[in-house]
Specification:
The protein is mainly alpha-helical and about 110 residues long. The protein is built from two helices and no strands. It is rod-shaped. The mean pLDDT is about 80.
Length: about 110
C-alpha cells in the first residue's frame, strides 16, 4: 500500500509540474505577444503615415508646378513679362517648390 501512495505522489507532482510549466509558458506568451504585435503595427502605421505625407507633398508640388507653368505660358519663361503681383507670386511659388523638394529629400520621397 505504501508503494502505491508513493507512485500517486510522484504522478501528482509530475502533473503539477507540467501544469505549472505550461501555465508559465502561456502567461509569458500572453504577456509578450501583444507587445510584439503592437510594435509591429506601430512601425507599419508610422511607415504608412510617412507614405501619405510624401504623397501629399508630391501632390502639392504638382499643383505648384502647374501654376508656375501657367504663369510661364502666359508671361514667358522665368515670368519675364509678368506684372508685379504675378512676379511676386511666381517667386513665392518657386520658393515653395524648393522647400517641398528639400522636405521630400529629407523624407526619402521623390522630388
Amino acid at each position: 500500500m505504501n508503494g502505491i501512495s508513493t507512485w500517486i505522489k510522484v504522478v501528482a507532482a509530475a502533473v503539477g509540474l507540467i501544469i505549472t510549466v505550461a501555465g508559465a509558458m502561456w502567461g509569458l506568451e500572453e504577456h509578450y505577444t501583444p507587445r510584439i504585435i503592437h510594435e509591429e503595427l506601430s512601425t507599419e502605421v508610422a511607415y504608412t503615415k510617412k507614405q501619405v505625407y510624401i504623397m501629399q507633398l508630391e501632390q502639392q508640388l504638382r499643383r505648384l508646378w502647374d501654376r508656375v507653368w501657367m504663369l510661364e505660358d502666359r508671361f514667358g519663361l522665368q515670368c519675364e513679362n509678368c506684372p508685379g503681383e504675378y512676379f511676386k507670386e511666381y517667386n513665392q511659388l518657386k520658393f515653395e517648390i524648393d522647400r517641398i523638394n528639400r522636405e521630400l529629400e529629407r523624407c526619402g520621397g521623390g522630388g
